[in-house]
Specification:
Elements lengths: L10 E3 L2 E3 L23 H6 L36 H18 L7 H17 L3 H4 L2 H23 L7 H10 L7 H14 L31 H9 L2 H19 L22 H20 L1 H4 L2 H23 L6 H8 L7 H7 L2 E3 L4 H7 L5 H6 L8 H14 L5 E3 L2 H15 L3
Parallel strand pairs: 3-4
Antiparallel strand pairs: 1-2
């Protein structure tokens, strides 16, 4: 391996290489440490240690100086970098709150029990909901499927639901039966989206059929001026289209990463981010996504006549899609953010970038905070992804105070409907970038 190549078996923090392989088994945060292997894990390192941040000097024994990337390497000069000034100002107050109150940064036990019960009931009903043929049952199932995906699965994937990283990971894998998969969500959301939100490296906001950022290259550019109209049709099918797209990508990934290199050696299998993967993980993704599509879009046609099966399937798809999509698309793709990015008003500091490209909605609403799993407080969620939304109200107060002191923006809407209007204007503006 040459000096300027990134090794997939190392961790890169603040431009320095570390081999944490021996440290990983005793890492207090458990398997979460593996998410940073083979990438620039600087932002992961800081944002996932908000209470008691470890000193880099503690990792000195694991340093691999010969593998440090040069200053000119994209790993060092990437879309976003970490500057401690702003983030430390917020983090120190958040840390003080948890230390003095002696509270866990995860969900209270009673909260965990309620969510586990909802998850269990939803997955038990899932194989029979559409087969049964009752429209009220389908409506209830679609509602709770969205709740499980947004709240339980999303929060557990960030290691924010339980104190045990292993339990969080297990719950995240179980919720893969309802939506997405643990592996794909970790890659596209936890790594790509949270490290580089609303940048060219963010695969969750880069779509070829929707432009909200200047650098996006559309497949059908002549349709973009009308995207603010047709996009809503895609949204109401989101709970089907997202798994379908992930399934197609997973099959292509499985096929494309097999074979031999020019030198006759077997190609290393890589995922959609170019990181190492295995046939087992690829096949697991394909099986889980196929399972989701079958039990949510296909099974009804085996038990009922075509038109009733179609009604049941569309009802379930529409309701779950609207609940999920409408709460996700309003977080970044809104008028203020699209306008800011189109004018080139950007910053390379990750924390400031989060503030300038993120929108909250219904910030004071306990209902939306619990129902969405903290998505309505998106700013706080990005800054502290592994702290449970139960604690976001206090963190919001800290962020608001610091933003006022440093004259930084803090975008929020009064309610979800206002956010959807801002999203409509943002998508309309993006069509003419």
């Amino acid at each position: 391996t040459t000096h300027n190549m990134i090794r997939n078996d190392l961790w890169y923090i603040e431009g320095k290489a570390y081999d944490l392989t021996l440290f990983a088994p005793i890492h207090p945060g458990g398997v979460a440490i593996l998410d940073g292997r083979g990438i620039d894990s600087t932002i992961l390192f800081h944002s996932h240690h908000p209470i008691n941040p470890p000193s880099l000097s503690l990792l000195a024994r694991y340093r691999v100086p010969s593998a440090d990337p040069p200053i000119s390497h994209p790993l060092v000069s990437s879309d976003l970098t970490f500057s401690p000034v702003l983030y430390e100002k917020i983090r120190s107050q958040v840390s003080e709150y948890f230390v003095k109150s002696r509270l866990s940064s995860k969900a209270p036990v009673w909260y965990q029990l309620i969510l586990v019960f909802i998850l269990a009931m939803t997955l038990c009903v899932m194989p029979f909901a559409l087969a049964w043929g009752s429209l009220p049952v389908v409506l209830v199932y679609a509602f709770f499927r969205a709740l499980v995906s947004l709240n339980i699965g999303h929060v557990a994937a960030h290691y924010a639901l339980f104190d045990s990283p292993r339990v969080n990971r297990t719950v995240s894998r179980i919720t893969s039966l309802a939506f997405s998969t643990c592996d794909i969500w970790n890659l596209t959301h936890n790594i790509s989206h949270h490290l580089y939100p609303f940048t060219p490296s963010d695969v969750q906001t880069n779509y070829s059929w929707k432009r909200t950022q200047p650098w996006i290259r559309a497949v059908y550019p002549y349709l973009l001026p009308y995207q603010h109209l047709y996009i809503w049709v895609l949204y109401v099918f989101a709970s089907f289209l997202w798994p379908l797209q992930d399934l197609i990508d997973s099959v292509v990934e499985l096929v494309a990463t097999r074979g031999l290199n020019a030198d006759g050696k077997t190609k290393p299998r890589v995922n959609r981010l170019g990181l190492p993967t295995t046939v087992y993980i690829q096949m697991e993704n394909i099986c889980l996504l196929s399972f989701q599509i079958f039990f949510n879009q296909v099974i009804a046609f085996f038990y009922h006549d075509f038109w009733w099966a179609l009604l049941l399937t569309l009802t379930s798809t529409f309701l779950s899609s609207m609940i999920m999509a409408f709460q996700i698309v309003v977080n970044h793709e809104v008028e203020q953010v699209v306008s800011t990015m189109s004018r080139g008003v950007v910053t390379r500091d990750w924390a400031e970038h989060v503030l300038r490209t993120t929108l909250n909605y219904s910030s004071d609403s306990s209902f939306w905070r619990h129902f969405s799993g903290g998505l309505n407080l998106q700013v706080e969620h990005h800054l502290f992804p592994n702290i449970h939304p139960y604690h976001y109200p206090f963190i919001r107060g800290v962020v608001l105070k610091v933003c006022k002191e440093m004259d930084l923006p803090y975008y929020e809407s009064k309610n979800l409907m206002e956010s959807l209007k801002k999203h409509y204007m943002g998508v309309r503006l993006g069509g003419f970038l």
